[in-house]
Amino acid sequence: MLAYIARRLLATIPVMAIVAVLVFSMLRLTPGDPAAIIAGAAATSQDIIDIRARLGLDRSIVAQFFIWIGHALTGDFGESFFFKKQVAELIADRIGPTVALATTTIILSVVIAVPLGVLAAWKQGTWIDRLVMGFSVLGFSVPVFVVGYVLIYIFAIELSWLPVQGYQPLSEGFWGFLRRLILPSITLSVIYVALIARITRTSVLEVLGEDYIRTARAKGLPDRVVLMKHALRNAAVPIVTIIGIGVALLIGGVVVTESVFSIPGLGRLTVDAVLARDYPTVQAVILLFSAVYVLLNLAVDVAYTFLDPRIRY
User: Fold this and answer.
1) I want to staple 116 with a disulfide (CB 3.0 to 4.6 A). Which of 152, 174, 197, 312 is the partner?
2) pLDDT digits (tens, 9 = 90+) for 175-191
């Protein structure tokens, strides 16, 4: 197992290298000049040239890349063009809200989606099954920002139950921290719940047709025990897989959700940095998201050995 984990960690090096090259190249090739944005509308051509020289943008793309990657390998991602602050400090300041939102979303999604999927499989063909599948289709069809604005209108504006925007650190009070995460977490979890519930239903249905399930029922075991102890446990591998894959949806949804609810996290930072052509910030944040995604998928692969004893690496 340790050898397998070591090989997977080594395999992340070329993956991260490819991500770094693609992100760096795409940012440089897209229209827009960060020097012109920093200089402002009243700047002269010479002002823009001076700013480009100060930021190192007057060098060739290849030279800029190797300078950046050399500093990045030492943990120095440079200074933000727009925020005038070290990128590492910016990420450290903004990572708390994003981690809080992602954690509450994953917990909420799994707690809701897995029971819904099991229930839909157990009640296959009934109105409960059709209702769960209808919700899955709806969850995939409605954009995240639409769900967010609808929830804001109902629960924040009309009913005044929850705050519209903002974020409160956990250190300033648990209830205030939770109240400001309820709407964003529900918004972000809709598509996640739809995905996990659908896969859970499919996986449990496949397991329910196995011989050992019929044997368990023939022994007189209650449906609850058959579903939870035998069916769900043996259907866990595909469910855990889709939870890991869904992290990509979660990362993309964080960007939109934090913008809708004005949460000062990494998603909102990414949007502001892209609009300002803040190359160092965008590059560092995307590298961080990529590393998290790769490591979570490694954790999912390792979890297989605990869920299914037949799987060995």
Assistant:
1) 197
2) 888 888 888 898 888 88
